[in-house]
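dude i think i finally got it to work??
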Amino acid sequence: MEDVTLGLAVLLAAGMLAAKAGQLLKLPSVTGYILAGLLLGPSGFGIVTMESVGNKLHHFTQIALMLIAFGIGEQIEVKRLRQSARSIGAIGVAEAAGALVLVASASFFVARLCGLQCADWSTDDYLVMALLLGAVSVATAPATTLHVMRELKAKGPLTSTLMAVVAIDNGLAIIFFGLAMSFAGQIAVAGSGSVAGAILGSMMEISFSLSAGLITGLVISFVLHHLKRQDEMLTAGLALLLLCGEGCRAFHLSPLLAGMAAGFTVINRVTRDVRLFRALNAFEPPIYVLFFTLAGCHLDLSSLGNAGWVGLVYYFFRIMGKYCGAFTGAFFTGAPVAVRNYLGLALMPQAGVAIGLIFLISSDENLAAFSAIITPVVLAGVVLSELSGPVCARLAITRAGESDEIVDHNLQPDSRAGKKENNNGKQHKAFSLVPWTWEKLVPHPIPDGVVAFGAKQSDKVVGLARMATIFAHHYNAVPMSVRVVQPYSREYVLQGAMDSLFSGEREEIEKLGYDLHTELVPDKDIASGLVAAVEYNDAKAVVLGYPIEGTFQSFQEILEKVAKNVACPVVLVRFYGELHTERILVPVRSLDELNDVGPIVHALSRVGDHQLTILYLLPADEPDERVEFKKHQLADWVKRLKITAQITFQIDKTEARQETILKESEKHDLVVMGTSKKNVLKKLFFGSLVETVSRRIRKPLLIVYRPANEALLADRQLR
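look at this
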């Protein structure tokens, strides 16, 4: 593949699809990105290679690394970490030393036992190789770690400690690596350098890198102070960060350390201006997908075979060193239990910094013999840690209880308790009905019509009965349960099973103070049977239950046929969890939608003590005067309907209607929405907000279908 634009499209699409597939298996998105790259790269189908597309996208990698480093700097806020600064320093040194000592020791002995060597190696040569491997093992993958933290929306002592330790890690990796390189140079070429010189060189590199980042952070803070628009902040901030990174590369400094220092400076200024961090958060996702998918393309599975036993030793002893070192440091400094038990697990990822360090070895002609062994060993460790590391980091955060992830499903991810599985293999949270504690309702002495309801699932019909009774009370009607049966089974039902057939809903309705009316309709077609019962009994509303079992498509056909042929509202109830009606959310986009759901909202407000929230959704660019105008309109609407319940008008200018509704629904017990009248073609092009929300919302939902047959409605009103 030679076309760079096509390569970008393939990398983005494959990375996103693999991430979504991984989420179904509870894997971090970054693992999906890397696996997608692995399949696209030379170790997979060879669609994307470094020679064709990969090298042409190198600048995306540089951008991603600076964004990642800057984001890590944000996590190192002195005010939050001051109390644990001593602990973080000790843990960082302990886990780095643990990895260095264990990897170096194990590599030295295993390499000698396996006879792994180039030419005639002496004991000193094995020692140099082991020290270089130990120094490289100290490095972690800040990109992978940060991405997992953000995906989980992690907050807590473990997360704060982890981000700080990752920053320390890579600084220590540079120091240890500089010392090891100097020692290796002395072995390879007599008099090539002193240990003191190596220490001085490493300290100068770290100092100059941090200074460059500090200056960049101060400049960013100064520029942000004079900018107000987010797009200007994003442009200026990104330009300064990239200039800092390229400047560091030109002078052989560390862009990672400089980026971390810049983020550290901005977040710890007295002004604490985080607007650039938030602007970059919105800009990052496609860059991260490209970065990690390209990282997967770089991985070469053949290195696993070339590394042999030393590769496995490097991988496993690095994990042991990180875990044991972190545990020891946390234990002796009195860190929280979560930090002690799970920090080492979250430090497993390793990638960019380690690969950069082995590149330095390969670029030194005096260390070519060591590079031939070290490169496949480290690459093998990177392959294994990049596949398993994100999973372990996610596990550590979730076990520590610091994940605040919102799952894009109708279900909570952690537990199977309280869920049912239907015949299609899908899970649904078990439905329960809160006991009726309000006073019994008093039926109208001369009832006018009915509110009809019906459901196939016996556990749902009780909830439908309560809703139908509340609506019947508003309409001065009576609740009526309708069952449509095959014509040949009607006599059997009438003779032996009428009482038991309606026993559940009858008991619930009597608790509310009403008597149940029943209708058994013999008809081969459920929809036509319902329509006949509704029209014959002069129904004021029809209440149906959202299907849990069977196919939704067949139910959709019934629903559309009923809504099209009746002269009253059809209310579809989607049960989820516990059914409360105290705090009711009503999202609308227009007064027409509000009028459609008005009678149902009014009915709910008349029973018990309720709090209503009318969530009026406006486009994000609407002027403020429009908001005030809508508030007056809503107040007039409430006055016209004579709603006496406690009511709140919330007018939101939103960029994403669905997300606004889902977020607000978490504060409420029940959501009521209306449907717009769209034909199939309009729905295909413009979509349906209520259908989209119903697939993701985790609250009971009422969907109100206004009568589609306006002629029938007009005829009834005339009568």
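The mean pLDDT is 79.
im so relieved honestly
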